[in-house]
Amino acid sequence: MQDAATEADLLTDGESVKKTLSVIELITSGGTAGMVIIALLFVLLIVATYIYFERLFAIKEASKVDANFMNQIKDHVTNGKIDSAQMLCVQQNSPVSRLIGKGITRIGKPLEDINTAIENAGRLEIYGLEKNVSVLATISGAAPMIGFLGTVIGMILSIFEIANSGGSIDIKTLADGLYTAMTTTVGGLIVGIIAYVAYNHLVVKTDKVVYQMEANSLEFLDHLNEPT
Q: Could you state one GO cellular component term attached to this entry (predicted)?
């Protein structure tokens, strides 16, 4: 009976030693340096999230084009209703309609001049679609490096404590440096992966809008080049 009681006490003592660590505790256990770097990574995550959703909605809005838009433009141009065609472009107010509108203003000039005007307008539209997207690419590369900086700082703190321990290492202080190293690395990788995926998704969405602009521009130029 006494052995059983002793074993139960040992199990109880063992269970009392077990400790769960929440995310907040994991961050705060990394010391001041770790919390500063985690805070910086959190700010980068907020910036990346804002840019992603802002650009995503803007690109989705830019990709909306009336299915009958080009047919109406062709009818207006064929019938010589240039003003009506321009008004239709203004009403649509999309990258495609602005490109076609720029071409309509050049009707009567050589086809090469019309094509050049559309290409120049297209570059401006693409620049507008890609606004701040490069920031996501920067964050996807910078966040892991910032996390790695925290890793180096944490390891330096741990080595410093070992060097100055005088033979008796304070495990708590040593653990703080290791917490800093690990938490910042994980945080940097998470932010970097999110920003990288968001960037590539926006690039794919932007390429679809660019293809849409090119296809409609070529259709418009082909119509102008048709024999009357």
A: plasma membrane
- Label residue 220 exposed, middle or buried (CB < 10 Å: 0-12, 13-18, 19+): buried
Is this structure's pTM higher than 0.85?
no
Longest dimension (CA), the chain: 109
* 200 residue type, one letter: N
Q: 107 near 224, Cβ under 8 Å?
A: yes
Measure the CA–CA gap between 218 and 213, rounded to whole angstroms: 9
* Phi, psi (degrees; rounded to nearest 5) at 109: -95, 170
Q: How far is CA 132 from CA 99, 127, 145, in A?
A: 22, 10, 21
**177-222 per-position pLDDT tens digit:** 666 677 888 889 999 999 999 999 999 999 998 998 888 888 888 8
